Each structure stands twice: as C-alpha cells, then as structure tokens.
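Schema walkthrough. Field components (list of strings):
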Amino acid sequence: MSDSIPTDSVGLVQPQVHHFDDPLTLRSGKVLPAYDLVVETYGKLNAEKSNAILICHALSGDHHAAGIHAEEDAKPGWWDACIGPGKAMDTNLFYIVSLNNLGGCAGSTGPASINPETGKYYGPDFPVITVRDWVNSQARLMDRLQISKWAAVVGGSLGGMQVLRWAISYPKRLGHAICIAAAPKLSAQNIAFNEVARHSITSDTNFHQGRYLEHDTYPQHGLTLARMVGHITYLSDSAMRAKFGQAVSEFEQDVSENFGRDLRTGKLSFGFDVDFQVESYLHYQGERFSKNFDANTYLLMTKALDYFDPSVDYEGDLAKAFSKSECKFLLMSFSTDWRFPPERSRELVNDLLRAGREVSYLEIEADQGHDAFLLPIPRYVNALSVYLNRVHGELNKDAS
Amino acid sequence: MRPDLEIIQQWIEPGSKVLDLGCGDGGLLHYLKTSKNVHGIGLEIDTENISKCIENGTNVIEQDIDQGLSNFQSGSFDTVLLAQTLQALSKPDILIDEMLRIGKKGIITFPNFGNWKSRFYLSSKGRMPVSKFMPHSWYDTPNIHFCTVKDFDALCREKNIKVLTRTVVDLEHQGSWYMRAWPNLLGEIAIYHITKESTD
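Field assembly_structure (string):
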C-alpha cells in the first residue's frame, strides 16, 4: 500500500459486477428479466460466514463506500469516515458489502444502461423501483455471496429505510438493524422538495421525455437545480452559517455575527449575479453533481423515497409491520436534521416499542443537519463502534 | 451491584418485562437479563451512561422522563422502575401515575428527607442540609422535590396505591430492626414496591 494511503483506510478497492438472470418481479408488477449489481466488499468473510454487514446507500450514494479506486483519487468512498481498519465499521472484524442499487447510475442496471430488448438506453422505460425491490435484489446478492444472515444491515437516510425494510421482509436474515437519520415515511414537505427537484429535471429542454442519452445530451440545468434544492435540505441553518461565515467581510467585522453571509468578492454587485459565497457554493455543488449523476436515476431515487411506507401492508400500523422482526434495532438521529428530524426517528422507536422489539435510540447533538450521518461526529461514530464491537463479541460467543 | 439494586432485583420475576427509568449505566438491566432472562429497556439522558448501556448490550432509549412517558403503552411492562430519581422530577406525582399505567407494578427508591440527620441539620444549623449523600446547595440542586417516608405513604393513600413492600436502608444499604421500627427517622434510602389497587 502506498505511503499516501492512511493506515485506517481500506486502501485500493476494486468493484465487482454480479450478473443475475432470475427475473425480478417488482412492486409495480413489472418484471426486470436480468440485471447487474456492482458491488464492493471490504474485510474478510469468516469461516462461519457470520460477520457480514450490508451497507445500504442513500439517494446519491453508490457501491463505493470506502477506500479509493486509484492512488490519484481526490476523495475516498462516501462512508470512509466510518468504514476501515479500526473504524466504527471495523474491516478487521467484519466483512462489509456495499452495492449500487438497481436503477442507480454507478454500474448497476439502471436507466442509463442498455435495454437488451431494444438495444437502446432504458431511459424512461426503466421501471420505477421501490425500497422493497432493492431489498429483494440485495437478498439475491446475499445468496450469491453465500451469506445466510447479515450480522447487521446499516444505512442512513434512504439507506436507513432499506434497513427497516430488511427487518420487515427478511426477519430471520439479519441480526441487527442500524437505521440512521431515517423516517417511517416521507412528510408532505419532503415530497414537496422531491417534486421541485423532479420538476426542474423534467422541464429542462434537454430532458427529451427522459430519452436525452439518445439525443446525446442530458438535462444539466435541471439536474443542477434539483441538486441545489436537495443540498439545502441536507444542511442546517447553523451549518450554513458556519460554512459561509468564516471570512470577515467589509460589512461584517464580527465573524460569528454575519449569519453566514460571506461575500464572494467582498462587495455587493447591485446586479443579479452571484454575490454571496453560499450562492456560488450551491452552483458549484449542483453543477459538479449534474456531470456525474444520471437524471433518470435521480427521478427514480426520489420516487422510491416518496413511495416508502411499509405500514401500507399492515393497515397503516407500522408496529404490525415489525411484529415478525427478530433483529435488534439501533436508531440514531441528529438534532439539527430538518429533513428527517429526531421526531421522525422517535416515531419509529415508538412503533418498535409497541411491536415489543429490542431497540436502542440515540439523539446526537450535531450542527451539520441531515449530512451529519456521513461525517465523523464523535458521539455518533463512537456509538456505532461500541455497538458493532458488541455485535462482533456476540458472534464469537455464538460460535464458541 | 449497588445494594439498593440488590434488594430491588429480588422483586423482579424471571422472564418478565422491565422498564428502567433513568437506567444509568444499565448495570441492573444487564444483570437481570443475564441472571433472570428479563426483557428490559432503559431510559437515560446522560451520554456517558448511554454509551455504557450500548457497550453491555442493554437496550437504551435517549429520552427525558421529565417530558412524559406517553409513548409507552398501558400495561406493556411487568415492572417499571425509578431508582433515586423521584426527587429530581418536575412532576413526580404524575410520573408515579404513569409508571403504574405502563407497568403492573412499580418500584421506587428515593432519599428519605425525614431521616434524623436532615432533621438535625436543619434544626441545629437552620440551613438546608448539605452532606456527602445530598451534596448540592439549595440553589443548584437537581433535587427539587424531596419527600419523607411519611409523605410518600400519604401520597400512596391519596392515589389508592397499594404498597406491596416498603423497606428502608442506610447509606451502606444495610437494613436493621430499628430502621424497620422507625423508618422515617432512621432510614436514609426508602425502597417501595407498589401497585395500583383494583378499583372494582
């Protein structure tokens, strides 16, 4: 390993593609005849195959959760803060499996893949995928890897929803469900933000009813807007004040008092161009994202979020949905998260209590908003680490 | 184990469900789980204690009991436990009602302010008692609702709460015949096992 790679990194990783020929019937009733899932694994599967953890990614995530693909990579995987030797999800102890979900755009079959029936891009013809469909496809991957039971399934945000679905759909196939910054279902406000994002994409003249790849273009403007809106909801007011309130401007001498209103050039333009740092930051984030993410995948992921509500099969009572779950639950939320605030996690905790499940719940003080689940917040990362160390200890006890 | 917890654990049936309000480091629940197969859940707000609970595998929910327990269903636990926290609650009487709504039985322990040491301190010095046991000054104490054994007995009568067992111990958690004879005068920690009398 190169000297430049930190010792607590999983280092260079190589994604693998698993092809599946068994048709997958989706919740919508449509059938996906065959598909690929791209997967990364970190650590070693033990002889009993009992130490596997499944990582479920959120809206814009993918299989690349930890380590780097090449020495020159500027950034490691999206959850590198928590995955690695000696880290909270310790690759010395666990075999960690991370995949790009169906409908994604990082290598698994999705709208930007070629539809074998037509020889063209799937585009808008790719079926709408739900959280339940993802979990079913993850169970097939699990069989392929010859793992009969996950030690834990872990995810934040939309990933946390997959964790909940695992506990409902496959109650015997996971020991622990670790669900971070999630919600039992989206609120009207959540859906509203998603619809703004979708509308900005579909109203872009380059969208071409989703067949933009056939026209050799993509709705860059719409995707940029969608990401800008999304990004605002991931950050808290306090996080934005801190992020854009570092420099002292000519107007505001007191750094802590300027409400994050740092100016880009130090003075107002008295025009409609970008004046404040926060504006240029959002433009940058949105544009960068639009170059790396498929617009149809963004539409699919937001729909999966909107449709998530496991209580629909149980007369609207989520406690009933968890009645057969056998795993233990760990839930965590963050104080300034206004996308899926602590109240939403407490709803889940209360449903789990009503179902008589074993549950622990932590409410982490953090300024970073919804994004906190990706960041090395000491109390959060420590809780994850302590919990999983305990899980690993139980594995050894069971084996002896 | 803390000796008051040693007394409490004898009242808990094997295999039963226990809700521990202010469960601390989860020591009691962990002991009950391993020795009596008790299904326990603890509520706690101290982050260090919560971390210790997770470490020893105790189910712990970060929840301030002073904000109420309405999220717990009636009759969903066999025993609801409140150890050494009653005096720090803003509405202790309502919490006792809630304990006996959620649990079939309740166990409450509290420092007995009627103990002769408190009485002597107040009567001789004319100031609020400060000791190793109650180390806070009046203005910064978390203990805002001190009561005596007699006060608690009166509250139980008022609320039709049946006292199954009442015991008092000293700071070393030793009981004796003279404490049993004069509990309100000699007992330093009161331990109550209570239930709601049937109304029919």
